[in-house]
TrEMBL record:
This is Hedgehog/Intein (Hint) domain-containing protein. Residues 157-294 form the Hedgehog/Intein (Hint) domain. InterPro entries: Hedgehog/Intein_dom (IPR028992), Hint_dom_sf (IPR036844). The lineage of its organism: Bacteria, Pseudomonadati, Pseudomonadota, Alphaproteobacteria, Rhodobacterales. Pfam families: Hint_2.
Length: 353
């Protein structure tokens, strides 16, 4: 059994047109509606059989719900009836309108329903509690048999085998402990003040590790990162487009460029490392961010093995973090010839070093 902390907006009324006998309540009737965001609540997603999926109970998609599986909220365990996704949703937060978001709607067996934004479409600067209004986009027309638990909590971290530079040579991310020092992009060092690890199902293409092969963006060995892990890109194109030579791009937004791929696995162990502030750590030939934090990232590490500070850290970003559309523009510019990659001050990487 796997419990994952999550969040959402519980709606104050039963689903419009709710029919207990129907397996197809969720559809385009929600297109364009304004979501009631007055009831932000935190819940536990219970994956009773540990298969990485919280299955729904509707009978027309072949799903099979394990006993005790569902969502644990203020009123106890509620079983999921149907799951739907609405693309091109729109949120207002901090006076900024965010478009192109994906929203998940869960309909429960008692006719209640809740809405949650998908992590993979959330800009790094958008905190769910800051949302002042939310409008659902367009139903994608897919009959889902449940929801991947990883879709509730996007990790922001290294695969455990990732080599990281320290003053004493290269060490696997999974072998680093509290108090160990790591070498930063600028060449100075910082002490690890917070650490967490979690093993997750990684069969879904959306949540599987992103693999950068040797030579991709300066990488000197095969490197696996979580999809939202920020990778340092230095480019004259970034200066032209965003006024900063160094920017962070989510690993998922590098897919399709220079051989970078998503490679599913049955399970993957991710390691989060905090150094008391947001900083850039050195993987072989590649700058990768330390743990930055955020509401959706915090929900993952609540269930992880962690040590260090009692509370999950939150740090302001040390570099501009590009949104997905911004990253797409930058990659197109770099492909056209305005290339660049970080130059890390480090000796050549070998497995033995």
């Amino acid at each position: 059994m796997t419990d994952v902390a999550s969040w959402g907006w519980l709606q104050p009324t039963l689903y419009p047109g709710w029919t207990a006998a129907s397996d197809d309540n969720l559809d385009s009737r929600l297109d364009g509606i304004n979501v009631d965001i007055s009831n932000f609540y935190e819940v536990t997603i219970r994956d009773a059989d540990g298969d990485g999926i919280v299955s729904d109970t509707d009978a027309d998609d072949g799903s099979n719900v394990a006993p005790g599986e569902g969502v644990i909220g203020p009123s106890g365990l509620t079983t999921v009836r149907e799951v739907a996704r609405y693309d091109d949703s729109e949120a207002l937060a901090g006076g900024v309108t965010y478009t192109g978001l994906a929203a998940a709607v869960m309909l429960f067996d008692d006719g209640s329903w809740a809405v949650r934004l998908h992590d993979e479409t959330l800009p790094p600067t958008l905190w769910p509690r800051q949302v002042a209004s939310l409008r659902l986009g367009t139903w994608d027309g897919v009959e889902y048999s449940g929801a991947y638990t990883a879709s509730f909590d996007e990790p922001l971290c290294f695969a455990t085998e990732t080599p990281l530079r320290t003053p004493h040579g290269w060490r696997r991310a999974g072998d680093l402990r509290l108090g160990d020092r790591v070498t930063l992009f600028e060449g100075d060092t910082a002490r690890i003040t917070w650490r967490a690890s979690a093993t997750l199902p990684a069969r879904s293409r959306r949540h599987a590790p992103v693999v950068l092969p040797p030579g991709a963006f300066g990488a000197r060995c095969r490197i696996r990162l979580s999809p939202l892990h920020g990778v340092l890109i230095r480019s004259s194109a970034a200066t032209l487009l965003f006024g900063k030579q160094h920017v962070l791009v989510a690993a998922r937004d590098l897919v399709g460029h220079r051989g970078t791929k998503i490679v599913p696995a049955s399970r993957v162990t991710y390691v989060h490392l905090g150094v008391g502030r947001h900083a850039i750590l050195q993987a072989p030939g590649l700058g990768c961010e330390s743990y930055r934090g955020g509401h959706w990232a915090e929900t993952l590490v609540r269930g992880a093995t962690r040590s260090g500070m009692r509370e999950t850290p939150r740090y302001p970003s040390c570099l501009p973090v590009l949104t997905r559309p911004e990253a797409r523009v930058l990659m197109n510019y770099m492909r056209a010839g305005l290339t660049g990659a970080p130059s890390l001050s480090q000796r050549p990487y070998t497995d033995a070093s």
